[in-house]
């Protein structure tokens, strides 16, 4: 019994001789075979250039601040724990780019691993929980174990960019997450807070990427740009920034000079 007769007897079996494959099918097969041996490409993450070195702080809360002319301004109060110390200066020769690594929030030595402690001890710095980099054009004015003071970097009236982690809301629906409108609650409507249609039928036969649907809300990194420094209180070691910043009280904030293309950072 031939192979074709055996295959025809089995339901759903289909056989074709190798020489019957079309040129188009053979090309796609070879392309698939060649592509399967390639390693997946890794995304290259590049850090954007900062307008100047920044500092890290802790969000304390919000309040109303009365200016000299009587205007009431909503401000966010940011405090500073022990830290903001330069732990490493990266250069083009050693690391391929110029950056300043800064540590923040002192902790006990046993809270860090031995590699982390060795990295900080190499710079002569204390044990700190957070390490962040600020990529700069020039790093000549920085050296390891240098302490960064906020009022020496920023002045009242300066514009800053503040980034942090937003408040996590958990899994939320379309109304809360994407501001969708709900359906009628009366008159026989059976669609109140449901999502509704998520696409067509046979064509395209799938849901488009990026479709706004229920999911995890909050808990992501967010940057608020060009916020004004209203007040710097050296006695209380706090700074008041106009407007709201990401996160809840106690969250870590990254404060850098506001980036203005063509003014304090190059266009390219």
From TrEMBL:
The keyword ATP-binding does not apply. GO terms for biological process: translation. It comes from the Eukaryota. Coiled coil: none annotated. GO terms for molecular function: rRNA binding; structural constituent of ribosome. Residues 208-220 have a biased composition (Basic residues). Transmembrane segments: none annotated. The keyword rRNA-binding applies. It holds the Pfam family Ribosomal_L3. GO terms for cellular component: chloroplast envelope; ribonucleoprotein complex; ribosome. Keywords: Ribonucleoprotein, Ribosomal protein, RNA-binding, rRNA-binding. Residues 187-220 are annotated as: Disordered. PANTHER family: 50S RIBOSOMAL PROTEIN L3, LARGE RIBOSOMAL SUBUNIT PROTEIN UL3C. Belongs to the universal ribosomal protein uL3 family. This is Large ribosomal subunit protein uL3c. The lineage of its organism: Eukaryota, Viridiplantae, Streptophyta, Embryophyta, Tracheophyta.
């Amino acid at each position: 019994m031939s192979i074709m007769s055996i295959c025809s007897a089995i339901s759903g079996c289909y056989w074709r001789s190798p020489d019957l494959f079309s040129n188009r099918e053979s090309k796609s097969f070879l392309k698939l075979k060649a592509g399967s041996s390639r390693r997946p490409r890794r995304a290259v993450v590049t850090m954007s250039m900062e307008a100047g070195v920044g500092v890290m702080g802790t969000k304390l809360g919000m309040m109303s601040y009365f200016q000299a002319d009587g205007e009431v301004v909503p401000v966010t109060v940011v405090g500073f724990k022990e830290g903001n110390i330069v732990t490493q200066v990266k250069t083009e020769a050693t690391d391929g780019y110029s950056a300043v690594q800064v540590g923040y929030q002192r902790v006990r030595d046993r809270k860090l691993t031995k590699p982390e402690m060795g990295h900080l001890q190499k710079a002569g710095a204390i044990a700190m929980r957070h390490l962040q980099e600020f990529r700069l054009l020039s790093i000549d004015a920085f050296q390891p174990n240098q302490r960064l003071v906020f009022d020496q970097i920023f002045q009242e009236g300066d514009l800053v960019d503040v980034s942090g982690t937003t408040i996590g809301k958990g899994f939320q629906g379309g109304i809360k997450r994407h501001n969708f409108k709900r359906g009628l609650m009366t008159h026989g409507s059976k669609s109140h807070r449901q999502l509704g249609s998520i696409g067509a039928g046979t064509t395209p036969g799938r849901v488009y990427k990026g479709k706004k649907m229920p999911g995890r809300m909050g808990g992501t990194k967010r940057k608020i740009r060009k916020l004004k420094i209203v007040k710097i209180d050296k006695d209380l070691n706090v700074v008041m920034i106009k407007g709201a910043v990401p996160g809840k009280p106690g969250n870590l904030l990254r404060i850098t000079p506001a980036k203005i293309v063509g003014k304090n950072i190059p266009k390219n």
